[in-house]
Amino acid sequence: MAFAAQFAGVYLNFSPEDAASRSRKLTAFLAEGMDPQIGWDGYGRLAAVAIQAYDAEVSDAHNAVVSVAFQSGPRRLMLSVPIYYSGDDAGKRFVVSGRPAVLPAPAPADLPQVAQPETDDAAAAELKPALEGFFKEYASGDVGGLQRYVAAGKSLPSFGGAFSFAELKEIVVPVGGATREIQAVVVWVVPNGDAQPTPSATDPAAVGGRLEQAYRLTVEKQGDKWFVADIRGAGRVVG
Q1: Which residues fall within 8 angstroms of residue 119, CB to CB, at 6 or more apart?
Q2: How is 97-157 classified by DSSP, letter by letter?
Q3: What are the average pLDDT values for consecutive 10-residue runs of the chain, which has 239 residues?
């Protein structure tokens, strides 16, 4: 699948100025005797990014059609690439064995609704200041400051100043005991190089951007305080 994705990176990007270079690069992928431009007439332009192998339809021990996902302008598309595999006895080599085909990408899956858990508003109110302190130190990279919010016997890495904390926008705390798995939506400020944000800045490029992220945290109540034992990305939409 990696071979097909590498091929797609060359095949899907062309312009008349780069025709000769593209042809030379494609020879590393094509079976002997195939058109070195593999069907392109030398006119027009195409640019593709975010090229990733998607899946493979295997027909036998040597032949498969690999689907590669890519982005071209505003469109997400697929490239179907026929591949031949020589096998162990011939050195485990691959070659494009026929003309590719561009296809529409599948539409996004329908996301089914799920019942929201019963929430504990009192625990959420208790957790909020602790989580605000945790996320502030989690962003800054102050090891000592972060450890004040981390459960005993645990240690967590931090962003080390890559972001700064702006806001704890939402907390979802299910009913439970002293250890719970909660979800939180956090707003980070993304630095903009050396630019210093000011309240009066009107140029979007001159200020740090704000980015909402969703997290899943394991929290533990020790005494009368809550502490963070683990942090991961949230699986589903919070709230």
Answers
A1: 172, 173, 174, 175
A2: -S--EEEEPPPPPP----PPPPB-HHHHHHHHHHHHHHHHHHHHT-HHHHHTTBPTT----
A3: 95 96 95 92 95 95 96 96 89 93 94 86 94 95 91 91 93 94 94 58 67 95 93 76
d(CA 127, CA 171): 9
**Element holding 11 (H helix, E strand):** helix 2-11
Residue 204, SS3 per DSSP? helix
DSSP character at residue 28: T
- Rounded to 5 degrees, what angle do the CA atoms 156, 161, 162 make? 100
Around 216, how many Cα atoms within 13 Å sit in the side-chain half-sphere? 8
pLDDT of residue 206: 62
Token digits of residue 167: 């806001």
Cβ-contact 27, 38 below 8 angstroms: no
Cβ-in-10-Å burial (0-12, 13-18, 19+) of 184 comes to buried
CB contact at 8 A, 189 and 210: yes
Phi, psi dihedral angles at 121 (to 5 degrees) = -65, -30
Task: Render pLDDT for 132-184 as a digit per residue (tens, 0 to 9).
Answer: 999 999 999 888 999 999 999 999 999 998 999 999 999 999 999 999 999 99
139: closest CA among 117, 159, 155?
A: 159
Residue 151 to residue 158: CA distance in whole angstroms:
15
